[in-house]
Amino acid sequence: MGKFRRIGGGFLIAAVLGITVPGCGNDAVSDSPQVLNITPDEGGMAVPLNANVIVTFDLPMDAVTIEGTTNFSLLKESTAFSPAGALTYNDSTFKAVFDPTLNLEPETLYRVTLTRGIRGENGEALVREYTWTFRTGAAPLNVIATRPLEGAVSVALNGNVMAVFNDAMDPATMTAETVTLEGPGGAAVSGTVSYNESTRTVTFDPSSDLATETTYLVRLTTGIKDLVGNPLVREVTFSFMTGADYPVDNVPPSFAGAVSAVADGSDAIMLTWVAATDNLIPESEIVYLIFGAEASGAEDYTTPTYTTAPGDTAYTATGLTGNTEYFFVVAARDRSGNISQTIVERSTFTEP
Predict the structure, then answer these.
(1) How far is CA 89 from CA 56, 98, 124, 164, 325, in A?
(2) Contact between 276 and 283 (Cβ < 8 Å)
(3) Number of separate helices (H) and strands (E) present in the chain
């Protein structure tokens, strides 16, 4: 945590920004508020992606000049993109906290700026504008996609279970103990585990067909490690339900992706597409998965942001932030859990 301290009527910014702010002399007393502590530190490296930005002031502050304003900003340095999030001020601790809605981007330089529009309860402006930068660390080792998806239904009885990682993995850590499939009551399902280095994908191949209309749980433990020995950031589990004894189906729907993304007010965006086709089921039974993000290419394909009703060819994403660009990828899923592979990203800004 970076620290600041007040000396006489001037301000010495200790250790963090390395800048001395002149005052009126040691006998004077300034009523202008200043920053005492910051998190992350100035020049901080490998900052966690889920970090909040926290600023502690030395005097009670006017929350109106902090919350819901541009006086306190967090920007991605290279593009001036401002992540969405909640900015709050605590009267009892004199702390302002910015909590990003989504994780920050990995290995990215961010800049925090506090303008002199921020004022104390006494009406005095900050002694000066404060600004500093920090850099986030690498993305923690994690699963970025699964097949079937979490909560998938009507999954094929003879299908394999797959998980894709965000880094090259140590194949020796992919074992029957670290990659498991469990049936009702936690009963272990026998099968073989394999790892594809080129796609960073682990596959569990059950020894026999799964039971019909049964819920299964996949478990990936922290015993799984990457090539330099880093374990999964957390144990990963996801569940799915098999379907009836349908014909074997390993063919995903044919789908061209979203056609358009159009703002629908300040908090909603409407997506449209042409219906997908499938080798076994009618268009009316195809479900669409919508993956959203606030940066291009940042969609998390592990879990869809929205899921449509079967047969829909449009969806309105709601609860968004005004005057903000959002990115979307739409995929089609059949009753066996097969998902279209075409990735077409559409984006637009919500209205101010």
Answers:
(1) 10, 9, 17, 40, 26
(2) yes
(3) 0, 27
Please tell me the distance from the alpha carbon of residue 324 to that of residue 72, in angstroms, as a whole number.
17
Q: What percent of the chain has pLDDT over 90?
A: 74
Which residue has tokens 């073989």? 192
Question: Which CATH number belongs to the domain containing residue 25 in this structure?
Answer: 2.60.40.1220
Distance, CA of 256 to CA of 273 (rounded, Å)? 8
In a domain, 285, yes or no: yes
Does residue 121 share a domain with residue 81? yes
Dist CA 231 CA 221 (whole Å): 9
181-212 pLDDT, tens digit per residue, is 999 999 999 999 999 999 999 999 999 999 99
Q: What domain count does the chain have?
A: 3
Structure tokens at 173: 């850590």
Question: Is residue 22 classed exposed, middle or buried when 0-12, 13-18 and 19+ CB atoms within 10 A define those classes?
Answer: exposed
Can you give the pTM of this predicted structure?
0.50
d(CA 229, CA 237): 21
The full DSSP string for 335-350 is: TT--B-----EEEEEP
User: For residues 331 and 340, is the Cβ–Cβ distance under 8 A?
Assistant: yes
Q: Which amino acid is at 240?
A: F
Domain membership of residue 90 as a residue range? 2-136
* Nearest of 100, 84, 170, 165 to residue 136 by alpha carbon: 100
H helical segments located in the chain:
none
Structure tokens at 259: 């056609």
| 3-class state of residue 9 by DSSP | coil
Cα of first residue to Cα of last residue in the chain, in angstroms, is 35
Q: Which residues contact 64 (CB under 8 A, 6 or more apart)?
A: none
| CATH code, 300 | 2.60.40.10
Tokens standing for 293? 């993000």
Q: Which residue, chain included where needed, has tokens 């859990």?
A: 337
- Cα distances (Å, whole numbers) of residue 107 to 45, 134, 140: 9, 10, 11
Q: pLDDT category, 30, cuts 50, 70, 90?
A: low
Q: What is the mean pLDDT of residues 75-85?
A: 88
